[in-house]
Amino acid sequence: MSAVIEERRGRIALLKLNNPPVNGLGWPVREGLDAAIVRLKDDPEVDGVVVTGDGRMFCAGADIREFGTTPPEHVRRLPEILDDLEALDKPVVAAVHGVAAGGGLELALGCHHRVCGPKTKLGLPEVTLGILPGAGGTQRLPRVAGVGKALEMIVSGRLVSEKEAAKAGIVDELVEGDVEAVIDAAVKKAEALAAAGEPPRRSGERTDGLQEAKDNPGLFDEFRKSMAKRARGMNAPYACVRCVEAAATMALAEGLKFERAEFMKLVNEVEAKSMRHAFFAEREVAKVPDVPADTPTRPIQNAGVIGCGTMGGGIAMVFANAGIPVTVVEAEQAALDAGLEKIRGNYAATVSKGRLSQEEMDKRMGLITGVTDLVELAATDIVIEAVFENMDVKKELFAKLDSVCKPGAILATNTSTLDVNEIASATSRPADVIGTHFFSPANVMRLLENVRGEQTSAEIIATVMKLSKTLGKVGVLVGVCHGFVGNRMLHQYLREAMFLIEEGALPQDVDRVIYEFGLPMGPFAMCDLAGNDVGWRVRQEQIKNNGGKPTNARYSGTVADKICEMGRFGQKTGKGWFSYENGRTPMPDPEIEAIIKETSAELGIERREISDQEILERCLYPLVNEGAKILDEGIAMRASDVDVVWMHGYGFPRHRGGPMFWADTVGLKTIAEAMQRFEKEHGPWMAPSPLLVRLADEGKGFGDL
Ligand code: 3H9
């Protein structure tokens, strides 16, 4: 079957892209489109052309897998083909449905008129792949939608609804009904335009949208200022702005040339490679080799959450947000009331910011039922436990759930540290037990670490991975170990951050380096946000369980313990590693500096100048090293899964591709050698993992595994 199907509707030629699953504009599609344009141009039997996509969408853009490869010589580039399409003298109408993204929207903009069906998403998400719309999008969208709208859409990469697109003038006509209705309307429009005999309305020849930049030439600099924080460390967003600026200041042909040159500069850069890796990693993560795609799943029509504290309440909101009724259990009525009130407050805050309607809030609250007796969970499809992090408490609870819940119910634990196998052993149905580790705040963070126990069944894994998607989460399947993937690696990073301040850095130095690298905040601001008392309690517990001694040869909690003893728990107490007199902005505090310096002296450490590079290496290389151990132990299935955990759980910058991909770009030899040096200088906890050393010796990366 051809990659572009050609049909006739009377005297209108209908071109259907046919490249499942997303009608990507790969070589065969471009070849087909190109040939059709040449053929139809002078066909006396054809008065007009309609372009659409076969299957479930119009077109999701260029075939991302082809980036970095060379097409056969006879296949022309997409921008050239779209120029020819736009130049046709016959009316060309796009029948858009499902998705028109990237090159897909550029194709639609190359048409003279756009008809669009319901529930359609349109946009130019190239920037999320570290590139820019390279087939005329930066030149045609501002002409059609206005410079301001185009800047916002292109720099954010946001897909908009068909209604928003129509309001912005991107779509000319909205049609209700199925794809056939959209095609019929497009054919009618092509016939009418042909009958009217007027010259085609080419996007590239329009100037109306450019007027706002002529009236306010400073708008580009203003825009650059407004995006500086979001775009730090990246090139693509700035290149996008330069191209839209070119649209406003250059003739079309010149602007297209400028766009092409900027596109070519970006496409093979590390930024684009990292973001392409992120794109495919996010899709790969859903695939579990020993749980085939056709594994049966259990229906999840309702849920139960045990515990209505911060975590439990957040998890309940996640279900309600997805339209799944959820029963929340707290032992005491007062705690239940307080928990439900907190949920209500969270929703109300979103309503007051205008991001949720009151009606939608009421609907979601209506899906949450509070109870004080576990027996109410007898008919529940999945129960997620989010109670105090204590093995005895959890085992007792799971034994009760085993007797209360119906056969076939999924029993899940939100533990962040405990052994899921041991928890499962408290039930008569360990195959139905799984870990679902949400990240705080659960209703915001997209990561969900699904922890498979030794006996968790394939059916339960498949169900929970599918449920993750339904809940709007990125589910990553991991194995059992202390801290699983994310927190186990985090532990290494935080430990070194603590050592660095004992040796000479200050919290603001460490945080600045990490922020500039691209994480949303540094380790100290992160601890202040999470609450320093959490780690304090964990350290005390660990020391108690280790016969009164710290578990590491060098104790990392000396300063942290002192600040907790002072009640500096972080943002919630107004002071932590930083002070928060002005709200949520961390301000360096001389009191902390004094405590740190005093501690260095007590520990007999002579403080020294610590470079930004050392801060980065000391924080991130041990984190990568732990990731290698996790891979070696089979706790994570793929290096790219570890990347997904860090991008979605901790805000590791997408333009670095996640820690393991980033490590490959640094070079594993460099990292292994640094770890060997750190081991000598600091101690055995810095020893490089055997996998890291092996890959480094073989000149390979984690991507080669
Ligand atoms: C571009 O257009 C550059 C231009 O300016 C031209 C320059 C000259 N290519 O996401 P899903 C695969 S850049 C290759 O699970 P959904 C995907 O990997 C492009 N493959 O479906 C997956 O494969 P598998 C700009 C692609 O329904 C399968 O299709 N466009 C592409 O949840 C299903 O995908 C974008 O950035 C692609 N373009 O979501 C849009 N797209 O089954 C990228 C998808 O083997 N795509 N695949 O794992 C999307 O955002 C979503 O796929 C979409 C559908 C919203 C369309």
Q: End-to-end span in angstroms?
A: 36 Å
Seen as an oligomer or otherwise, the chain set is: single chain
How confident is the prediction overall: mean pLDDT? 96
Give the biggest beta sheet.
Answer: 8 strands, mixed
Q: Would you identify the regions where 5 or more consecutive residues have pLDDT less than 50?
A: none
Give the overall shape: globular
Question: SS-based structural class?
Answer: alpha/beta
Percent helix: 40-55%
Over all CA atoms, what is the radius of gyration?
28 Å
The total of beta strands comes to 17
Strand order of the largest sheet: 12-11-10-13-14-15-16-17
- Given the structure, what is the number of helices? 29
| Structure ligands | (S)-3-Hydroxyhexanoyl-CoA
